[in-house]
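Appendix B.2, paired examples.
Example (i):
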Amino acid sequence: MHTTAQERLVRPARNLNGSLRLPGDKSISHRYGMLAAFAEGTSRFSNFSTGADCASTLACMEALGAKVNRTGEGIIEVTGVAGRVTPSSQALDCGNSGSTMRMISGLLAPQEGSFTLIGDESLSRRPMERIRKPLEAMGARLTLTEGHAPLTILGGPLKAIDYTTPVPSAQVKTCVLLAGLQTEGTTTVREALRTRDHSELALRAFGAKLTRTLDSISISGPQVLRAIDAVVPGDISSAAFFLCAAALFPGSSLVLDSLGLNPTRASLLDVLTALGAQISVLNLEEKNAELVGTVRVSSPAEGLGSTEVSGALAAQLIDELPVLAAIAPYSSGGIRIRDAKELRIKESDRIALTVKNLRAMGAEVTEFEDGLDVPGGQTLHGATIDSGSDHRIAMAFSVAALRAEGETLIQGADSAAISFPEFFDLLDLIAER
């Protein structure tokens, strides 16, 4: 991303207190935006994600004939194309959003016409081969550039398949299900590790029928989607930074209202509990099949202990691992992360950047191909942080900076806007200095 180097100075805090309501969940907003734009009728969403990634999804769907109307603070209305998109003469720009590119490919493959998808420099380095295999098995015609974007789809009728994902990926699963939605017969996706299920829940909310077994999800096509009205729950991946920040300060108290607590996403609460943080969930309810509740977190007087994140847990927590690593030096026993090789092909090589920045702050850390070991009981000092223009690295090290000695300069802090433009303002709101 070519931006002027936006920098942010983060000063240490004495404590963390307050209550927040977070912007809408990015994963759910992507899916609601895409499905509403494809459905019949006009959907209305409040608390829709404010992140640039979800704006990329909406812009692509507008280019394909949907109408998007932003009526107020966080409220959008989307009038869909009733299952038939209009091919755009322009390339569809997915910005920095891998979710947009991988999921929209499944939506477009069964449609008549030719579609070209492009992205920014970072997105153009991310692997797209993983969606080509299942879509080509269904009969789609895709052209990639050495396994990456730009990506061209020559759309047309597909055939149903039974597909096992080689690497568990919610985006690949969604891509295949969206193609299956429009295809005669029953399309099945099987996965060794269960990935986040927002797409299945969203498809059902829009009226589609799906069948789930322990390790598979099936959709019969073609089916029609119908508009919905929904409130998007607060984003738990965004909440992760505040939950981890509160866990750093004995005596902290933080309340997060209307937070999405989907079981395939809420594993962070288990990890923080294992570290010793005190977490309670209040007013749990279901909205459009998604669980929503209020979370209260406080840190024990004796501070955090130690834990390991590996196996299925590492896959579920892939986005939260950088911030867990960033708070690990302040725990008494440290944190060990394994089976997280996927981190190396995100917006940046998140393992390498996490290690580099921890060392810049004076931490001892051991790097592995698929993770890292961060010992506990360390004292960190302020430093200049290289975010690599990666939103999650910028935010993770802003959290680490709260307990460091001296000020920390976050370079590329503007990248936080990809998922969470309000992040720094909200952090200042609850940090007591």
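Example (ii):
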Amino acid sequence: MLKYYMAFFLALFLGVILSFPILKVCKKFHLSQTILHYVDKHKGKSGTPTMGGIIFIFAIIISSFFFLRGQVMGAVLALATMFGYGLLGFLDDFIKIKFHKNEGLKPYQKIIGQIGLSLIMAIFVYLNFGGELEFFSLKLNLSWAIIPFIVFFFVAVTNSVNLIDGLDGLAGGVNSVYFLFFGLILVVLGQTQYALICFASVGALLAFLIVNCFPAKIFMGDTGSLALGGLMASIACLTGTELLMPIIGLVFVITVISDILQVAYYKKTHKRIFLMAPLHHHFEKKGVHENRIVLIYILLTMVLGLSCYIGYLALSGVI
């Protein structure tokens, strides 16, 4: 267990060290986020630096490589995929900043990039592990169908993480708890390489929250949210635990479903189900402070993660 603690603390240390110079550079070059005009309560956040995801991306990569040993091809691919999604998000953020608007890459351009990166992972998983999924003691073999499944899974996960990044500390807080319990479960399953990356992610995200919690000094941007989604999806696919992700990450599922329902219902009736989508903005419109929303989302993820962890401990005979 020592290497997990060391990966966590090294990533935490690196994240803290990187946070303030990156924040300073972003301010100096005016790499700031343009806030959507219809998010009334966020008008005061206009001008906040973005691209802060760079902080935890490099902290995770450096810390992980420092402790990874043995057969690390899958782990390296997971980190490379995270970096690839981070680059896609960086391009999106750069376009937003350059043209001073909240729309970067076109939706179809993002999807093409996401599908291209996910196809590499899907083919690797199929060739090396077959098409087996694991859910507690249940196993399901999709054979070649695992390839389109993984592509869909990546698109769903990365976009759900991207959507939940709408309040100070929300994406960082929820993801840190998610990776903590996913890492603990991977330890039980003997997936030590990927567990190590999870614990490094927790440390890096906690460091990022120092500058991202309310009131945020810097946003992670699409640079960070797409990178986190890519890493989350990669680790799940490489360990065959894709079906576990929507359980621990229920808040991601709720977020993306609320957005889909809002858009679909509005197109059909020109009326809205929620005051604003995704769901966390609906709660804001109802007068709930964003800190309270963030706390509830984190606690829900913690309860679900702990429940799944206890379930795996029971199956392994530890309890």
